[in-house]
Amino acid sequence: MADPQLNLSEPLGEKHSTTCYMCACRCGINVYLKPGENGEKSVRYIEGNRDHPVNQGVLCAKGSAGIMQHYSPARLNAPMKRVGPRGSGEFEEITWEEALTMATDILEPLKEDPKKLAFFTGRDQSQSLTSWWAQQFGTPNYAAHGGFCSVNMAAAGIYTIGGAFWEFGSPDWERTKLFVMFGVAEDHDSNPIKMGIGKLKKNGGRFVSVNPVRTGYSAVADNWLGVRPGTDGLLILSVIHELFRMQKIDLDYLLRYSNAPFLVIDAPGTADHGLIARDKNGVELVWDAKKKKAVPQTTKGVVPHLSSEVTLPKKVKAKPVLMMMAEEYSKPEYAPEAVAGETGIAAETIRGLAAEIAKVAFEEEITIEQEWTDMKGEKHDRFIGRPVSFHAMRGISAHSNGFQTCRALHVLQVLIGSVDCPGGFRSKPSYPKPYTAHPKPHATQHDGAKNGPLAGPHLGYPHGPEDLLLCGEGKPLRIDKAFTWDAPLSAHGMMHMVIANAHAGDPYKIDTLFMYMANMAWNSSMNTRGVIDMLTDKDEDGNYVIPNIIYSDAYRSETVAYADLILPDTTYLERHDCISLLDRPCSEPEAVVDSIRWPVVEPNREVRGFQSVVLDLGARLGLPGMVNEDGTAKYKDYADYMVNHERKPGIGPLAGYRGKDGSKSGRGEPNPDQLERYKENGSFSMTHLPDEALFFKHANKAYQDFAVDMGFFDAPAPVTFNLYSEVMQKFRLAAQGHGDVQPPDRLRDRLELTFNPLPTWYAPFEEERLGDRTDKEFPYHALTQRPAAMYHSWGSQNAWLRQIHTKNPLYVPGAICDEKGLKDGDWAWVSSWHGKIKVEIARMEAVNDKTMWTWNAIGKRRGAWELDKDAPEATKGFLLNHLINELLPPKGDGYRWANSDPVTGQAAWYDLRVNIEKAEADDEVTLPILGEQKRDKAPKEEIRYGLEWTK
Amino acid sequence: MHPALSVIAFTTFSGAGYGLAFVLALGHGNSAALSTKIGWFVVLAMIGGGLLSSTLHLGNPQRAWRAFSQWRSSWLSREGVMAILTFIPLTLLAAMSILADSFNLVLGYIGAIMCMITVYCTAMIYASLRTIPQWHTKWTPACYIAFSVTSGTLIYMAFFGREAGSASNNAWVYLSVVFLVVAWLIKYCWSKNALAAGYGASSMETATGLGNIGKVRLLERPHAMGNYLTDEMAFRVARKHLNKLGWIEVFLGVVLPIVLLLLSLVVGSGLAGFFQVLATISLMAGLFVERWLFFAVAKHAVGLYYGGEEALVPAE
Amino acid sequence: MTTLPASTNKKLGLVIDLDTCVGCHACVINCKEWNTSGYGTALSDQDPYGANPVGSWLNRIHTFEVTPMAHQSKPKGQGVGEVIGTAGEARVVHFPKSCLHCEDAPCVTVCPTGASYKREEDGIVLVDEDKCIGCGLCAWSCAYGAREMDQAEGVMKKCTLCVDRIYNEEMDEIDRQPACVRTCPAGARHFGDFADPNSNVSVLVKERGGFDLMPEQGNKPVNKYLPPRARTDLGEGAAFAAPVDSTEEAGGVLGWIDRALSGSTRSKGAN
Ligand SMILES: Nc1nc2c(c(=O)[nH]1)N[C@H]1C(S)=C(S)[C@@H](COP(=O)(O)OP(=O)(O)OC[C@H]3O[C@@H](n4cnc5c(=O)[nH]c(N)nc54)[C@H](O)[C@@H]3O)O[C@H]1N2
Ligand SMILES: Nc1nc2c(c(=O)[nH]1)N[C@H]1C(S)=C(S)[C@@H](COP(=O)(O)OP(=O)(O)OC[C@H]3O[C@@H](n4cnc5c(=O)[nH]c(N)nc54)[C@H](O)[C@@H]3O)O[C@H]1N2
Ligand code: SF4
Ligand code: SF4
Ligand code: SF4
Ligand code: SF4
Ligand code: SF4
Ligand SMILES: [Mo]
């Protein structure tokens, strides 16, 4: 019998290209729409867009599950007003007009005292709009979620090399031969990292992963270093120790691009101690050994001396930065043997790692024949590359010593000369950008006005204590206390402190908490139960302590239940969005890229894109820039804004297809056809860098000129790599009593310890604060990891993704299991100084022997996300957040010490110390249970998606 | 393997039915006697009912007729075809007995052989599966045939053979005891093999091909909850239940029937029949347990992808 | 038709690289997404938002942990290949699994209805859902767990090797490959014709030592797996790395810096 005849050429339907949104990777997607039986079109298939520079056709699990995300039963249908108590989930649907009037009525009076509004946004990719809105409203209280996410990485990178991993740069995947990754489970650049690992393997390169847990990417690493959490700084400094010892440092590179030769004043006790010596024009001095005198570093032909102490005029002693480093890191305390115990990595392994790095960097050098000119006008025949690349993320940044660890890693890259060279780490334009080219933080109005627009953007990069956001009495200007002595360089704000501070009225009380796309009542907060208590707490008069909460979500998340007014957003296939260079860029090292989303599917509910709503609110409130002279709304909607808004003349949200005819990139007049042009091009624009601009962008003339043309800067902004951070030293000097802006006494010692201008390591605060109790009561570490197939909390409403991670066991090292009599499937109590949870465990061997871990954000509140109240996410899934507090264990000094990095305020999620004991097998339900949220409808019993097309 | 009630019912009942048919078709009974007529009727009901119950677990029973088409390769198809073919002589024999009080030995032999071939085909559905070492042995068809004949014999003896006279009834009792012993010896051999077989030559190491780098264990299931495969094939019963059921199986299936049968020889003729009926019921109950265990102890190779010996027991 | 073709013209199948798979489940979801609206009936999901969500999937990722046995471990203190940190040498391997399109596919021969068949032209094993009675026997016969009964439709589901993509004339040539291969971010999945000794897949198998799953089952799977590649020690062959007895102090380094700079390559303008 012949094989059956099959119809093998079914058409897919209409193809629409847009941008995925399930994570900050922002891949290009093709969405195919096909009519069903009733003629209505629905999504047949979503695939990666091959032409898109980010994902080049591939698509991850979340992106592929877009259909179930888009058609989720947890989607919100219309604006809602709370009718039950906060947390109950009881709402009444209202019209948009009612909702916007309600919001305007709440916000209008706050314009008089704008700080009464706290506007915080979460997983959002439209911060250039939201921050501008908040600036025009005049509140100092704006930030996105970066402060609890990865600001340590971003800030350490910006202050050190003018960029960081993550969105600012990536390994040169095509050429790298050794790739070393610290503390990454998934990351924002997730498809490119996977593609990169694939390429590296194909090219025969080596992949080393430093991570307490060996899953995901680490599972395919050639070498895995199961480091003890919070000790990477020591490990990296030990590698640096070895590089100095082996004399494998790229001196030439350091002389050209870093502050290695700069002279640091050595005058202990004076206000200049530790500052870089400068001439009267402020140019840094270096030592000219021939002339035996200090000369400006810009002097032509000077070969600065690097290795001995010198005396400057007025008998001031000074040392080159590199000499300070050599002295510091040659100390025996950084020797592999000395750090092996603390890090859990054998000395021979650390030596091996350093040797491998040195070997590949210096013996496997690669070159690209391409002429280029540096910023000093010197011409070069080729790009020389050291094919060692690094990548790191929250594993090293989410600790209270994370800033210094991230600094150490960036410094290591500079020492071996692999920043922005072939085979190394490559910046993605508009980066690199020196910290001096970023704005400084702002929290006040122009000329001391009480209200009206802020004088400048909220977030930025302080240069010293004088840039802190403190009022006259030294009190914080911001509700989250960002840019205060508690966290001077909190470049992304401190969203994780907002609810706690607003509840405590410390530093002041607020009226309205306005949030967007952040599940702050659940997985986004430390101490979830505490946060819920704060959100629902009432004062003596029976009013909520935080009076008004307005929230925009697209789904019935936990946080929806705690808000008073809900502004329902669309799904990502139903709205305009803009992935802008003014915001978090999605460029590639060789091209400037930005992209859009547009309504591939029209919403069938009373929902509106939040950005359009925010512009509408802005117009109703008459905020400057959002209204015309006659008081009418300036922008019809977000799409209109994307095309017509200009930050500076010729510079707007989108860089592609500018100018009347769409022929300009970067700078150019608004183009009314811009969005159509984007759509025709797969919803992105791409502007290639000239060939001579591809590497060493920090000091490459062609690149700097290109960047000016594109409008990244108005004048070239080359970067000098800061091995030594003068900014850090300025804060340290203040801690020593120098200068006008002085820290409170309680913080002096801590600033002295943590603001070391050379990368350093100190024990994470939680274990240090617990003292003896650490070893006795909480001997283990507990971590979370992002699952590749789940995006934080919101993947659980996705019928396909939730089948993969329906619940999350705690993975416990075999040795601890044996000691505690635990086996797969047992239940255990896990406790920290702050709390206790009951969870199901699973045994694992390929993990650091002191570390247990689980998947992040699988646990759900009962009834949330339109899941059945008995859904395993709610009965067996759990949050580690219950064990983590936003504050450190009390010290008895009456102060609330944040569980954060002392430099940036980054939440120290991974400092957590725990103990574990077997629990009686009773009902096998996780504890605590935090109430139940009302559901909208009964869950579907079955899905047969696509049935209509398969008959 | 997950024991499906419909399949257990099917194999035990149709097995017993074919066993009874085998006895009757060999010329035992008396075609004119009512009990023999009923016997034939019961035969048809048992194998027909068994067959019907076997379609209960089908996803699309309305297409069951298609199952007769692939007799060249498929034991399931062969079994279906044989079952239908066997109906021909058996229905004829039944009709002859019920309508014409007659019997034909040639047809009987043909029917008897076809009965055993059908039972063999049923057994081969299981025995042919390389994925399940407990089943993939010649002891499987041997067991099926032995239990078919034994249960048929006991049913015949207890319900339909009485008219042949008490002397010969004693002979049937002895024969039953012998069959019971032989069948359970075969079953013992099967069990011994089954217990030792594990996953056969397969292991988590061969399943993954990772044996050359170490010992393999499951860290995470592909999907957190159960699925068709874990429900159907990675099904596991706790060992203590297995042991308990093993004892029940032996007690009901062989110890009690033999005791009752031997007792039936010594008690008065009035009670003998009662004891024989009890013995038969006990055997059938034992066989039900036996068949349940036949599934429950079977280890499917797929289990190796879900944890092997450590398999995370019944999917939640 | 249940009998297997004596030989097939092509042997289409997948190579899965266990050295590269990071276990991201992209292929799993994309497979579901493609196939639920593609060949055969929808891939249903039961209790999708409830206490016991289950569904039909044609491809799943298992995660195994592999711990070297005594004879496989490196002696302590030798090299720094796998022996890392305090956690020993255990490692995690992500393991994607779909139908292997076996040459001696028992799932085909056991099928009583002829619904299961192996295509003569390319070796793809398919289920003709209009014929399938949902007896489940083919799933029992498959050692790899590659077949799943759809609970809503009562028919057997399995990987089709995306037969409705690889020959789909509505698609660009370059996209005529299985959904899971096209979507895999790490490039751990490869599609091709094993009958052609020069095809991409045949070459990979040869070069990387591709192997069969459970060869002892005698199914002759077409799909092959590539083993995790051999690990080598960090810093191997770096002579300069030899540890010194007494840790050299900064002085040594500074001397080196001095010497290095006096002969500086800087003026030559290397980079
Ligand atoms: N699929 C998916 N992708 C996502 C997200 C998601 O939810 N799902 N979330 C996005 C967001 S918001 C973020 S911030 C990024 C974060 O991306 P990642 O930085 O990859 O975030 P984590 O999952 O927190 O992974 C941290 C890793 O660090 C390890 N680790 C913990 N402590 C230490 C340590 O002290 N040292 C070292 N070396 N390692 C350590 C953990 O084991 C874990 O593997 O991912 C983004 N991408
Ligand atoms: N234990 C532990 N906790 C952590 C972390 C950790 O590693 N471990 N990581 C922390 C980090 S880095 C981060 S970034 C946070 C992330 O935590 P969140 O930022 O809270 O992330 P999600 O859980 O994804 O919640 C985002 C909210 O946005 C909503 N949303 C989704 N799509 C849309 C949309 O299109 N429009 C609107 N308006 N809303 C939408 C979702 O429904 C959800 O309520 O978690 C933090 N919490
Ligand atoms: S990595 Fe995945 S979720 Fe993130 S944007 Fe890309 S496809 Fe979407
Ligand atoms: S998509 Fe690729 S890397 Fe991800 S699980 Fe599948 S095979 Fe592995
Ligand atoms: S893997 Fe299983 S379903 Fe696929 S051909 Fe082989 S035996 Fe059949
Ligand atoms: S379930 Fe369908 S395909 Fe499988 S053996 Fe039965 S009839 Fe054949
Ligand atoms: S080939 Fe197609 S059907 Fe098979 S696993 Fe891959 S995507 Fe699924
Ligand atoms: Mo994050």
Bound molecules: ligand MGD, iron/sulfur cluster, molybdenum atom
User: Whole-Å distance between the termini of chain C?
Assistant: 69 Å
Largest interface: A-C, 135 and 113 residues
Helix content of chain B: 55-70%
The structural domain count of chain C equals: 2
- State the CATH architecture of chain B: Up-down Bundle
What is the helix/strand order of chain B? Answer: HHHHHHHEHHH
Q: What top-tier CATH class of chain B fits best?
A: Mainly Alpha
Please summarize the sheet with the most strands of chain B. Answer: none
What is the N-to-C succession of helices and strands of chain C?
Answer: EHEEEEHEEHEEHHEHEH
User: Rg of chain B, please?
Assistant: 21 Å
- Using the coordinates shown, work out and report the CATH topology of the largest domain in chain C: Alpha-Beta Plaits
> Structural class per helix/strand content of chain C?
alpha+beta
Strand content of chain C: 15-25%
- What is the total number of structural domains of chain B? 1
Task: Compute the average pLDDT of chain C.
Answer: 88
Distance between the termini of chain B: 16 Å
Explain what this protein looks like in three dimensions.
The complex is a heterotrimer of chains A (951), B (316) and C (271). Chain A is an alpha/beta fold and 951 residues long. Chain A is built from 29 helices and 33 strands. In chain A, strands 5-4-23-22-21-6-7 form a 7-stranded mixed beta sheet, with helices on one face. In chain A, strands 28-30-29-32-27-31 form a 6-stranded mixed beta sheet. The radius of gyration of chain A is 27 Å and the shape is globular. Chain B has 316 residues and is mainly alpha-helical. Chain B has one domain (5-312): Formate dehydrogenase/DMSO reductase fold. Chain B is globular and about 70 Å long. Chain C folds into 2 domains: 12-232, Alpha-Beta Plaits (2-Layer Sandwich); 238-271, no CATH class. In chain C, a hairpin with a 6-residue loop joins strand 6 and strand 7 (125-127). Residues 76-81, 83-87 and 265-271 of chain C have low confidence and may be disordered. Classes of the chains: A alpha/beta (951), B mainly alpha (316), C alpha+beta (271). Chains B and C meet through helix 3, helix 7, strand 1 and helix 8 of B and strand 3, strand 4, strand 5, helix 2 and helix 3 of C. Strand 1 (215-220) of chain B pairs antiparallel with strand 4 (60-67) of chain C. One ligand MGD binds next to helix 14 and strand 27 of chain A.
